[in-house]
Design brief:
2 copies of one chain form a homodimer.
Chain A lengths: L10 H10 L2 H5 L9 H19 L3 H7 L2 E3 L2 E3 L4 H10 L18 H14 L1 H20 L2 H12 L4 E5 L15 E4 L8 E12 L9 E9 L9 E7 L1 E3 L5 E4 L2 E6 L10 E6 L6 E4 L6 H35 L3 E2 L11 E2 L4 H33 L3 H37 L1 H4 L5 H8 L9 H12 L6 H16 L7 H27 L4 H33 L7 H20 L2 H10 L4 H4 L6
Helix pairs in contact in A: 3-6, 6-7, 6-9, 6-10, 7-8, 7-9, 9-10, 9-11, 9-13, 10-11, 10-17, 10-18, 11-13, 11-14, 11-17, 14-17, 15-16, 16-17, 16-18, 16-19, 17-18, 17-19
């Protein structure tokens, strides 16, 4: 059993559920009627325990041992088998899924926050359940009743695992160009059965020894289908064929040809898969032909929020490691007492600056992500149609922010945590360097962060004729106006109000560029725009939390655990607004220059 | 033989030597009288070849094989032995060192730029020669004539290697607290011989099988010496004792007790060393007692510039990898032609933005670093005393910028290069992820980047009563005034002039904080201040280069290789000024908030 490095203080999660967002409001919705607030707390406490006792201790061993590829099969790190069993036993694979198929039926915000624990304890391990339930969720949504009965309960329970097979060697970000083909299987009485041929790459959990079967969901083009994304269909392709009664049949000609040697997440098998090399691979069409991309996108949007969640989870764990170290490691005196004694480095001003950056940053990300999950619950179950629609719009708007900002900012925070450790952080005795390595993939998969910024600018700004975006900005401006001149946070609200103006200014600039034909400025500035909007939303949520915390602080002993927590919230919000948010103004100045050098420079200059 | 990934276009180095800084001016100095411009070009071409043919092909193998620790001895990656031989044969260990002791006697700027090739080709390998010559340089400076004759030629030639032994388990950034002791050796007739006892940690090249002997330079406290840095002395501690005639004697009780398992530079042995475990370790006092820190600092300043150079070297190699990939990898259409055909991703707007960021950023760092080395040559050999003094002041001022900014910014550029690769960059088939891993140590060693910012604020701003700093700002303001309204770069000069004002404003703020007792704001803002000054100096150097390039462009075919290079320079300067430099203005706003939350927050809130 390895050392557990997971050390998350659950207090911020409790604050989100009970003081900031309010899970009790969700429990009033009919599908959650069976749950009480106490149930939710129990679930979260159990998740914390599983993360501490099972997943966390397997993290470093999983990294060191890695996945082994032998004779076409993949062995996961040995400690992962116990983790998988623990996740199965608790029903953790399908927390927010339908109880009819074996899910626990919890609100998405609860599942999301519990998953922050799991990913924070062991990201590589948690890829296996994530892909399994994401896959089954699609079968639940689009499969026939027989498909559902055959696959979904076995996957929600973790008897079988799942994957998403999109990427091909020549089609990465560019999924529409995939070459995997599907042709009707002449030998099958079922018209939904096709012969599959093709190669997939970078398939997470594509092969492993955790389960007796792996159900691939695969994108392929039915012969004769249109080019591009409009001709892509989705297929259920089991590793081992499944008979109608659920019994395992013969191997389905899905061959793992190798695994990648990666910078991080060594315990997560990233596989190259060859389908139909012996012409024996069969897949079951999921839903109508040529609708695969749209279906996959439903899953991908959740996966994007999940990816942002991983950025949060890793950077929060990196922060936990750094704060623990800083309270222990003794070095020279602080700047403000240079002739003094050696102190714990948490007394060094720059270390405090880095720690508060990590604390404020991770808590702001957690607020954004929890809010997004919370809004998913509202969008599904809120009785009032207008409130449902508003929530759905915000989920759409926030999704690219969560995915891109929380993975880039999260990465920079893992880097900062390593810095707090000094040389010890560069060595693998502590997990600081592993968090950095594990985190780096997140800006790439599930649509690169640039793709997210195009999604934001190209799709999300225009939702409902721009009403979603404008409404979000207006709500934040109102919040600023309501609190202008606040005794504790006046400067913060003033900065936030200015920053909202910058976001509106840049969005207006994009419209102008569309109008005057200088559209090249849109992609050049899309990343900066996404970062501005994310920081504005996160600053706003941080200030919401700070106001709640101030109110609560008046009712408790300031030196109590709760009192300290509320004071920390207030300091964190101030720090975020005054030291992180101002980046918006630099991007504004850069935007105003209308610098086109990156477009004008000849290719040969590179 | 591994694949060579080193692929540096030498054109920018040639531009620096011949068009921007002008190495010919240095060659007029008496010590360089034997060199012609053609010599220098030959040296640079040979260095490029060694990097391509020897060091580069050993980079990935060195990472994968790593160092092996067996029975107290360290084996370096097998391919490193040939690299070491090649470096020895070319005299590359001591390019800028005195010819009397076997150095090549070249200008520091030539040595620095050649070392950029070596580090860019194989950072882990090049740690061994760097430490060897840095060590020997100290013996050359402070040893007796006998010490010099015994050690220096054998180290400049690479027959023996060297290390710097500073860090101890409980004394990292905090060198003054080291516990290694030295007591006069009663058995030695030479009063400079001491018995050494202690443990050192994180010693790069502390043990290896490249050479028959390793000469440690070790900091220790002579019994009874004062506490803190003022009681530290420097000792020559050979791994194997050296007789007066240079013959190897008996092992000197220096035991390697282990090596670190690190995030990167796997081929560089990072050792824990135990001196005098059997009471048999002897060291030779170098110079006077209790003067070790000052001596070490002379070497450390060069090592700090060298560390910044590594940040440049790795990020420039990462850029080379990314631009090569971007010209090859085909994916979907660009944003400005979304219904078009698939293209090489170098046609994607965001990829161009990232590539130009890397190009402009690495070239600006190269300009800063080359200028620093160039000024070292001026400071040593310029006949005019005032010019010498001015150069020496600027070297002091620039050193923390080079060390801290080029390692943090360099790291962020390696990250960006990985992003250009997408998923392939996360896998070790390409070296993108290795550059990220190798680079991360640079913000930590040779004084953390925070220590650099304190050095800047605490020591360098006050040099010559502030004249060095004020003079540097005034020169840039004059440069801006002379070019205000420039047809091509008017906006850039305007931004730069504003940014100079911000730097002056922040420096004034520090003085006020010293005066009014709010000194905690100094360390809280020191890092941001360093970044501002570095960006101002780099923007200024980029614009100097752009003006040279524009002048030259008028004399060549714009489509020629030179024409394209000059156009690239102009685009790069514009990009840097308009898209990187504006970060200064965000830091100004953050500074103005006078946010003290990181100081005020109770420790228990973390």
């Amino acid at each position: 059993m390895g050392v557990n490095h997971f050390n998350r203080d659950p207090r911020d999660t409790q604050f989100l559920l009970h003081e900031h967002l309010g899970v009790a409001k969700l429990l009033a919705y009919e599908p959650f009627a069976d749950f009480s607030v106490e149930h939710i707390d129990q679930v979260m406490a159990q998740a914390h325990q599983v993360a501490n006792q099972c997943l966390g201790p397997a993290m470093q061993d999983g990294d060191r041992e890695g996945c082994q590829f032998q004779a076409g099969e993949v062995k996961v790190p040995s400690a992962f088998h116990d983790c998988w069993r623990a996740l199965r036993q608790g029903g953790w694979l399908a927390m927010a899924n339908d109880r009819r198929w074996g899910g626990l039926g919890l609100p998405a915000v609860v599942s999301g926050l519990a998953n922050e624990y799991f990913f924070g304890a062991n990201m590589a391990l948690n890829m296996y359940p994530l892909l399994t339930s994401g896959n089954a969720r699609l079968i639940e949504a689009f499969g026939t009743e027989a498909d559902r009965e055959l696959f979904v309960p076995r996957m929600y329970s973790g008897q079988w695992a799942g994957t998403m097979c999109l990427t091909e060697p020549l089609a990465g970000s560019d999924v529409g160009w995939l070459e995997t083909s599907a042709t009707p299987d002449p030998d099958s009485p079922d018209k939904r059965v096709y012969k599959i041929k093709g190669r997939k790459r970078f398939i997470s959990a594509g092969n492993h020894d955790l389960t007796e079967n792996i159900i691939h969901l695969l994108l392929a083009r039915i012969e004769g289908a249109p080019h591009g994304t409009k001709g892509i269909s989705l297929f259920i392709v089991p590793k081992i064929w499944v008979e109608p009664d659920g019994a395992l049949g013969r191997p389905n000609d899905v061959v793992c040809t190798g695994i990648e040697h990666k910078m991080g997440i060594h315990g997560s098998a990233t596989c190259a898969l060859h389908f139909g090399g012996s012409d024996q691979c069969r897949g079951i069409l999921l839903g109508e032909p040529h609708t695969g991309m749209a279906k996959m996108f439903q899953m991908m949007n959740e996966a994007r929020v999940g990816t942002g969640l991983m950025g949060l989870a890793l950077s929060a764990s990196a922060y936990d490691a750094a704060r623990t170290w800083a309270k222990r490691r003794v070095q020279g005196p602080p700047f403000t007492d240079r002739r003094g004694q050696r102190v714990k480095i948490i007394n060094h001003e720059d270390v405090r600056r880095m720690l508060l950056n990590m604390k404020a940053g991770t808590e702001a990300m957690r607020a954004l992500i929890a809010k997004t999950y919370y809004l998913m619950d509202v969008a599904r179950f809120e009785p009032d149609a207008a409130a449902r629609q508003k929530a759905a719009g915000l989920v759409e708007l926030y999704t690219p922010l969560v995915k891109a900002y929380c993975t880039d900012f999260g990465f920079s925070l893992t880097r900062e945590a390593l810095q707090v450790f000094g040389g010890a952080g560069y060595c693998n005795g502590f997990p600081a360097e592993q968090y950095v390595r594990d985190c780096k993939i997140l800006s790439i998969w599930e649509g690169t962060n640039y793709i997210q910024s195009l999604d934001l600018v190209g799709r999300k700004l225009g939702l409902e004729g721009g009403a979603v975006f404008q409404g979000a900005l207006a709500d934040i401006q109102t919040f600023c106006a309501d609190n202008a001149g606040d005794a504790d946070f006046g400067k913060c609200f003033s900065l936030l109000s200015r920053a909202v103006g910058v976001v509106g200014f840049m969005a207006g600039g994009f419209l102008n560029y569309l109008g005057d034909g200088r559209i090249g400025f849109i992609p050049l500035n899309a990343t900066a725009f996404l970062e501005c909007l994310a920081e504005v939303v996160m600053a706003s949520l941080s200030l919401e939390q700070a106001l709640v915390a101030r109110r609560k602080l008046a009712t408790v002993d300031p030196a109590s655990a709760d009192g300290l927590f509320y004071r920390g919230k207030m300091h964190g919000a101030r720090f975020f607004c005054q030291r992180v948010l101002p980046a918006v103004f630099a991007r504004q100045i850069a935007f105003e220059q209308e610098d086109a050098s990156a477009l004008e420079i000849p290719e040969a200059c590179f």
